[in-house]
Amino acid sequence: MSDDTKNELKNLSRRHFLRNTSVAGVAGATLAGGFGSAAALLQSQKARAASESGEVAIAPGELDEYYGFWSGGHSGEVRILGVPSMRELMRIPVFNVDSATGWGITNESKHILGDSAKFLNGDAHHPHVSMTDGRYDGKYLFINDKANTRVARIRLDIMKTDKITTIPNVQAIHGLRLQKVPHTKYVFANAEYFIPHPNDGQNMADLENHYTMFNAIDAESMDVAWQVIVDGNLDNTDADYTGRFVASTCYNSEKAADLAGTMREERDWAVVFDVEAIEKAVEAGDYKTIGDSKVPVVDGRHGSKLTRYIPVPKNPHGLNTSPDGKYFIANGKLSPTCSIIAIDKLPDLFADKIEPRDTVVGEPELGLGPLHTTFDGRGNAYTTLFIDSQVAKWNIEDAIKSYNGEDVNYLRQKIDVHYQPGHNHASLTESRDADGKWLVVLSKFSKDRFLPVGPLRPENDQLIDISGEEMKLVHDGPTYAEPHDCILLRADQVNPSKLWDRNDPFFAVTRERAEKDGIELTADNKVIRDGNKVRVYMTSVAPQFNLTEFKVKQGDEVTVTVTNLDQIEDLTHGFCMVNHGVSMEISPQQTASVTFTADKPGVHWYYCNWFCHAMHMEMTGRMLVEPA
Hints:
Elements: H1 3-10, H2 13-27, H3 38-51, E1 66-71, E2 77-83, E3 87-93, H4 107-113, E4 128-132, E5 135-145, E6 150-155, E7 160-166, E8 171-178, E9 186-193, E10 195-196, E11 210-218, E12 224-230, E13 233-239, E14 245-251, E15 267-274, H5 275-283, E16 297-299, E17 307-313, E18 319-321, E19 327-331, E20 338-342, H6 346-350, E21 360-362, E22 370-375, E23 380-385, E24 390-395, H7 396-403, E25 411-416, E26 421-426, E27 438-443, E28 459-465, E29 472-479, E30 486-490, H8 508-516, E31 526-530, E32 533-541, E33 544-545, E34 549-553, E35 557-564, E36 573-577, E37 582-586, E38 591-597, E39 602-607, E40 620-626
Parallel strand pairs: 12-16, 32-35, 34-40
Antiparallel strand pairs: 1-2, 1-30, 2-3, 4-5, 5-6, 6-7, 8-9, 9-11, 10-11, 11-12, 13-14, 14-15, 15-17, 18-19, 19-20, 20-21, 22-23, 23-24, 24-25, 26-27, 27-28, 28-29, 31-32, 32-33, 35-38, 36-37, 36-39, 39-40
């Protein structure tokens, strides 16, 4: 071995230290096993360098082939990336406060946030796009907030959040997926943690009477349609291509409240929900309600006719549906295996003709810490191995043959990723159209991949070319605050608006207020005084506000409404009142409003805070506040 190679191998030691500490600290002897060699990692790194031929470069002026929607993790937002360039195009605030757009500050956004506007944080995990006949229709994107038990909907024509629902009776919405056929009627959302009912501070130590629920939200109204009580902690979920079955992984079958207790059993389960049977039970009135909530709640615990529990090893995490509609894949996490569940066997399972384990047709051993599986549409699956810091490519049908005793090798390739991957996602993979071009891997740690930036480091999103026989790593991308998951769809499947429609329901609440005040939003620049409430209406055309001065009294509640009359794409205005903590975006033909208290007498300037014109700096006005 050359001295250069020896030195390179020394620099890889931190990865193997991380692997070993992960195994010892999280799963102990359960995950004991080999870790591969540093030499293999070095070979992979050299292969990566050789594969970076510039084929994925998107030249200036060229457009990407795919939209990628990333969860923003602890930031509470959704991020839009172009793929394969991995350029960040835009951020959509959802559960967070965003001073650039005014989300969480404007009256329109507070109306959408509703009672949950009091929360200043969010934990966005799983973005998924609405479907028609199992194909992305580009209408909505849905995202969950684990931190505050919410589900939000984003309109993809304007790339704005338009509905947010707080799920009752549960805590911590985690896994989220959508009904695929005939269209997205339901958003399916897993509540992870069990709680007592009522959760009023009584019986908190009686864990046997605690439970969590599987939730179905109406995709159009965003009302919770029904909830199903389950055994265990719900994790991830996915739906089939018939519209009847949804499966979720459940861990903590032990019903423990401590780490060691949640890992006692060798198997937990994937719970399968019969959506048609649940709907019939609700229609027949075979449900209860809990507390003040009117949402129908049905019992889906062991023995229910509405669910079936399929034992799978161990603390299963990801649950993914193959694009041909044949299989649910449950990923083992604390087992080196994935469980392949045949969807065509589920009707017999619910008819009690077969046993739950009879639905498992394969259980390939892939490596340490399998978390999530995605697909290329050519019969191959790609599973992240958290402990091994790898992605394993394997063939589903060959894995089934091996399970049945045939001597076949289902593993096609393993590739090192950097480091410790969680979710992965291949282009179009959640739909019938999975095209097997690109694979995004969202790694939890970046370590030595980027310049150091202090104790808090970026994570690493990596792009892998899966169009050929071999996976090729082609891009590293630093990212912030644990973007949990992403989804890729073709650019032609999304049709964003270029200008706002003046009748858009997004600002209907402001339009209604203006009508009551007798204001024409596109024409009037007026001040309405109603006691200590002052409503200021103004229009804007680059580079000026058409109301450059107004007077109020100290202590007045002031609502400023601005309508952008410009009709040129990308000519966005802003409104920022200095020293009052308010700012907002007003894009072409949009109306936006913000309410604040004029608490200090004197002259207070407002200005356009989105660059709009060569005379942008001069786009200003004054609020004159008279002493009380």
